[in-house]
């Protein structure tokens, strides 16, 4: 068996040379996955068995090619949930948790029987996190990709929320004829010209359709803001994720469609990440 510390030292050096931030932590997470231990359990690990070492080496090889850790392990955490990930969806990010925090602010009654729609659901992270906080709520997630909708459905089973959620493949809300108390969405919002400058992990591995927001990054918001008045109940809330500096432009699009800005919520980096619009109905 190879010594754990030797493996971690060599892997950390290789990851650092590849330009990967926090290389030591990344090496530990890869070894956790290869050995089936958490970070605490890794401390008591003396040696790494040959099969585990082989698994670790293969994972390290993929990470050095800048494949995201979440795609190597096939899972990631979001809010309080452990979710399956895959190449058909964006990897859930902590920034998006600002939308759940905004929801809790504007709908403080956790016992409310909310109806929730998640447009561009991806892994289902937003809808499932919301349902985990509102035990009487039910919701639908829609994604253009059938593979993404299927993955989100598996995540609903994984989190025990399958009885209160459904996932469909479709273009935004085109197939729906219903109104909801809450609409959540993390739409594509990167300007087309900026896509090539994103991190290799994003450009090379995550789906471009979930990133490309058109020439000005606002294409999806135009579609959403036109659709929202027919999707929300009177006084219902739409909570949208956005990129840096987009909140005023999206607020204007909302106002042009009869939606009033009622709140905003910053992510942990201080960026305005969630915009709350309300239907006056």
From TrEMBL:
The keyword Transferase applies. It catalyses: L-glutaminyl-[peptide chain release factor] + S-adenosyl-L-methionine = N(5)-methyl-L-glutaminyl-[peptide chain release factor] + S-adenosyl-L-homocysteine + H(+). Its EC number is 2.1.1.297. The keyword S-adenosyl-L-methionine applies. Coiled coil: none annotated. Substrate binds at residues 186-189. InterPro entries: DNA_methylase_N6_adenine_CS, HemK-like, N5-glutamine_MTase, PrmC_N, RF_methyltr_PrmC, SAM-dependent_MTases_sf, Small_mtfrase_dom. One of its GO terms (biological process) is methylation. S-adenosyl-L-methionine binds at residues 120-124, 143, 172, 186. Residues 6-74 form the Release factor glutamine methyltransferase N-terminal domain. HAMAP family: RF_methyltr_PrmC (MF_02126). Belongs to the protein N5-glutamine methyltransferase family. PrmC subfamily. Methylates the class 1 translation termination release factors RF1/PrfA and RF2/PrfB on the glutamine residue of the universally conserved GGQ motif. This is Release factor glutamine methyltransferase. It comes from Gluconobacter vitians. The gene is prmC.
């Amino acid at each position: 068996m190879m010594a754990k510390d030797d493996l971690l030292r060599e892997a950390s050096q290789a990851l650092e040379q590849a330009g990967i931030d926090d290389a030591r932590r990344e090496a530990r997470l890869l070894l956790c996955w290869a050995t089936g231990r958490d970070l605490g359990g890794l401390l008591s690990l003396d040696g790494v068995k040959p099969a585990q070492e082989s698994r670790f080496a293969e994972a390290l090889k993929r990470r050095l090619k800048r494949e995201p850790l979440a795609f190597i392990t096939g899972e990631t955490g979001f809010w309080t949930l452990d979710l399956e990930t895959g190449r058909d969806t964006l990897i859930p990010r902590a920034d998006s948790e600002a939308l759940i925090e905004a929801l809790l602010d504007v709908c403080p009654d956790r016992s409310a029987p909310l109806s929730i729609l998640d447009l561009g659901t991806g892994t289902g992270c937003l809808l499932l996190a919301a349902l985990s906080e509102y035990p009487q709520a039910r919701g639908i997630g829609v994604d253009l990709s059938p593979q993404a909708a299927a993955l989100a459905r598996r995540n609903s089973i994984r989190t025990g929320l399958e009885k209160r959620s459904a996932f469909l493949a479709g273009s935004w809300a085109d197939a729906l004829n219903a109104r909801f108390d809450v609409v959540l969405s993390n739409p594509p919002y990167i300007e087309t010209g900026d896509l090539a400058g994103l991190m290799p992990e994003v450009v090379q591995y995550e789906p471009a359709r979930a990133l490309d927001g058109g020439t000005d990054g606002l294409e999806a918001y135009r579609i959403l803001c036109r659709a929202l008045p027919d999707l929300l109940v009177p006084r219902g809330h739409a909570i949208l994720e956005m990129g840096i500096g987009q909140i005023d432009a999206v607020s204007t699009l909302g106002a042009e469609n009869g939606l009033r800005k009622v709140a905003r919520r910053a992510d942990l980096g201080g960026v305005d990440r969630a915009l709350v619009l309300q239907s006056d109905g």
